[in-house]
Amino acid sequence: MTDTAPRTGTAVRPPAPRPAPGAPAAPGLPPVPTPAYLYDLAAVRSAHARLRSCLPEPSSLYYSLKANPHPAVVSTLHGLGCRAEVSSPGELDAALEAGVPAGDILYTGPGKRDEDLDGALGAGVRDFAVDSVHGIGQLDRAAARHGVHVTYLLRVNPGGGSRGAGLRMTGEPSAFGADAEDIAAHPGRYTGGRHARIDGLHLYLATNIADEAALGDSFSEAIAVARTLREALEVPLRTIDLGGGFGAPYARAGELPDYPGLAGRLAQELDGALPGWRRNDPAVAFESGRYLTATCGQLLTRVLDVKASHGQRVVVLDTGINHLGGMAGLRRVPPLHPDVVPPAGPGTERTGGDGPDAAAEPPGPAMICGPLCTPLDTWARSHPLPAVAPGDLLAVPNTGAYGLHASLVLFLGHPAPLEVVTDGGRIVRSDRLAFVRRAAAT
């Protein structure tokens, strides 16, 4: 579990050591150096099965790589039937590295550079999502440069609002989507050109909704908008991507929410609004990132220091906002109030420090800080914590989504944490992102 690449500049992932085919499973995981993200592929498969049971059939499911683009996670979900939804050259590279064929990739995002489109088209991607009239023309010109024909989903920004959402994506001025009213009033602007033609609609109204009724209401709104615009556009639409919004615990103990009545509700509404959907005319799609991966991960960390300061117990860990929660302040993820608990699973046994300075402080509330040279590196001002000493192992649960890849990993130059993938009680992959500074043409 060592890394040898330098770590400044462009992110790279060194080749992963993989077990030989047929290698016997280890009786238990070896101790994992910290800090480390530990991803369990069995939990990924369990979450996928749970989500599929909540969706109407037939329907397809995209995996949004923004939640966790680790190749082992992406490969597992693609093997379960998920297409990949990417929104950057880096995510495209991650999907291709994971073995996802270009024909199974949807390239989204509200702003794309010409070189982004050229790279995607050169890699074989032919399905895109666009958010504006300009985006349609830009994609059409790019496809013409490559001598190919492509299709796109037109992302829609309807009015209204979704209750219970962790983050509202539409219904207000936004980079995401074309206004539904303008599409209905000027449908000819949105159907494409000679090399890029509309294939369907993309509606993603909100995210991180744990309440089933609220999530159902969000999808109901999307279905109603899709029905109206399908009639207004007067061109065949083969796909209606209703987006996601499925909630999941973030950096706290807890289970994935259940939506037992959602599939039946949506099937009934789709029968009324899009009566051919059961024959895939149009095909209905959903997408998810956090629900599929949140509960597969835990962030392992060791205690570096324990002290009392002005009457407050202070615990310093070897990880902090550089590895978890950096984007919480940007509202991309909920505010960070992590649970810090004893770790779970093999290979996470407590191995506390020794010596005269390693005595455990008594249990009770503690200020939990990371190792960064800034007072901003604080996860909690007062968090219940057992008796710990330097060297003790702790964990933050449910960090498989928006963990490392929504962090401030370059801030203050600490090494990136390991990413360790387990399956069936054994390690199947272990690697570390590194950063290399390269000369660039100016």
Overall mean pLDDT: 87
What is the helix/strand order? EEHEHEHEHEHEEEHEEHEHEHEEEEEEEE
Helix content: 10-25%
**Whole-angstrom Rg:** 23 Å
Low-confidence stretches: 1-9, 17-27, 162-170
CATH superfamily of the largest domain, called what?
Alanine racemase
What structural class do you assign from the helix and strand content? alpha/beta
Question: Quick one: overall form?
Answer: globular
Number of helices: 9
- Count of separate structural domains: 2
Distance between the termini: 37 Å
Major pleated sheet? 8 strands, mixed
CATH top level label of the largest domain: Alpha Beta
What would a concise description of this structure say?
With 442 residues, the chain is an alpha/beta fold.
Describe the 3D structure:
The protein is an alpha/beta fold. The chain folds into two domains: 10-38 and 295-436, Beta Barrel (Lyase, Ornithine Decarboxylase, Chain A, domain 1), CATH 2.40.37; 41-293, Alanine racemase (TIM Barrel), CATH 3.20.20.10. The protein has helices spanning 41-52, 71-79, 89-97, 114-123, 133-146, 180-185, 212-233, 262-273, 290-293; strands at residues 10-12, 36-40, 60-64, 83-86, 105-107, 127-130, 150-157, 167-168, 178-179, 196-202, 206-207, 239-241, 283-288, 297-309, 312-317, 364-369, 378-385, 393-397, 418-423, 426-432, 434-436. Mean pLDDT is 87; it is low at 1-9, 17-27 and 162-170.
Features:
442 residues; alpha/beta; TIM Barrel; 2 domains; eight-stranded mixed sheet; eight-stranded parallel barrel; 21 strands
Give the arrangement of secondary structure elements.
Elements: E1 10-12, E2 36-40, H1 41-52, E3 60-64, H2 71-79, E4 83-86, H3 89-97, E5 105-107, H4 114-123, E6 127-130, H5 133-146, E7 150-157, E8 167-168, E9 178-179, H6 180-185, E10 196-202, E11 206-207, H7 212-233, E12 239-241, H8 262-273, E13 283-288, H9 290-293, E14 297-309, E15 312-317, E16 364-369, E17 378-385, E18 393-397, E19 418-423, E20 426-432, E21 434-436
Parallel strand pairs: 2-19, 3-4, 3-13, 4-5, 5-6, 6-7, 7-9, 7-10, 10-12, 12-13, 15-16
Antiparallel strand pairs: 1-21, 2-14, 8-11, 14-15, 14-18, 16-17, 19-20
